[in-house]
Amino acid sequence: MRRLIVESLETRLLLAGPDTTPPLLGIKEPAADVPVEVGSELKIVVEAADPESGISQVAFAYRLGGQPTVELGTDKEPEDGFTVILSTKSMPLGSISLIATATNGAGLISVAETKTTLVDLTAPTVILKSPTLDNALSIGDTVRFQAEAADGQSGLKSIQFLADTDPEVEGPEVVAAFDVTGPSGEAQFDLSTAKFGFGLLAIGVAASDQAGLAASEALKIFLHDPTAPIASFIAPTDGTPYSPGRLLLITVQATDPESGIQSVLLRADLDSDSSNGYEFETEAVAGGNSEYSGIFSARDLADGQSVLIEAVVTNGDGDSLAISHSMTADGTPPAVLVRLIQDTGTSAEDLITRNGLIQIDAGDG
After folding, report:
1. How many CA atoms lie within 13 A of 275 on its CB side?
2. Residue 314 near residue 229, CB atoms below 8 Å
3. Taking a C-beta distance cutoff of 8 angstroms, is the pair 211, 93 a contact?
4. Does residue 131 have a cis bond before it (omega within 30 degrees)?
5. For 226-280, how does the pLDDT look when each residue is reduced to its tens digit (9 = 90+)?
6. In degrees to the nearest 10, what's the CA dihedral of 189, 190, 194, 197?
7. Which of 47, 152, 274, 311 shows the greatest Cβ crowding within 10 Å of its Cβ?
């Protein structure tokens, strides 16, 4: 009986023979042709089996495009599945081949390969460090642009600085561009604001990466008018006598090439205790010369009494200029008003009423 059993076992071993069949092998994850974001941790999962001699190990590798194959490691513990983690940080965009090689107990191997694509789905980050909202700038100042950007996926490509007074019309103007590569970088640029006008200036920075994704940051700062307005009297001139009880035409020429004229205040101060004057607003006239006139009623003034003619001109940025000169009553009608009435054939009362300056009683000159 014992001899028969031994022969039966030997016969069965002889019939089975050595394992000549390679193991079964397939890559389960990632699925073929499913893009993988560069910079991520890619988990590679393999299914391997051999019903005869079992799986002794699974080796992993990858290949970028036509580059040499890179070994990733070997998994010899099938109890928890055959897996490996591949970091795609700093890898270039494009095709990647994932390769698994399974070896069974008899030393036979099987190779499985799948291809996928490394893509960048995340835009870079960018910070405009300078200028800031705290910067007080005037037309003609030089402003320093400074920015930092980063892209941990495909890497940076460029940093651009932008500035425009009206970006909503044609889009912001690129005033400087720099090629910046790698996972992070910075750039700076000095810009003269002389080419930009008074008011809000939109500035910003834009960063792009190798995948064509972009990010930007912007703010608006105010460009101030660096100079006060320019003003002078056209009439009356300094020292010109005026006639008591009549009307006096006051004309000021004012200009501001940057922010324009916002308002003009005309006043005739009779003495230190009282004043007779008025104020009127005008539209801003940027870059042009304009004349602003008003009529002062000199009624009830005695002959020889002095009058201080005063004008306060304010530009669009709130800067003011005050000019003045004095006049003395001598009983002679003001020549400029007489000539105006003679040339136009218009009475002083009609002139005042038509221009809406002040109202006077009939017979006030």
Report:
1. 11
2. yes
3. yes
4. yes
5. 999 999 988 877 777 766 667 777 888 999 988 888 888 887 766 544 444 444 4
6. 50
7. 311
Give the Cα separation of 29 and 48 in Å (integer). Answer: 13
Number of structural domains (the chain) is: 3
Domain endpoint, select from 196, 224, 252:
224
Euclidean distance between CA atoms 196 and 177, whole angstroms: 19
Domain encompassing residue 261: 230-355
| Amino acid letter for position 260 | G
Q: Which two tokens stand for residue 105?
A: 């107990």
Separation CA 60–CA 74 (nearest Å): 6
Output b/e per residue, 174-184; b: 16+ Cβ within 10 A.
ebbeeebeebe
Burial code (b: 16+ CB inside 10 Å, e: under 16) for 72-87 equals beebeebeeebebebe
CATH code: domain of residue 189:
2.60.40.10
Edge-to-edge strand order for the sheet containing 320-328? Answer: 276-281, 261-269, 306-315, 320-328
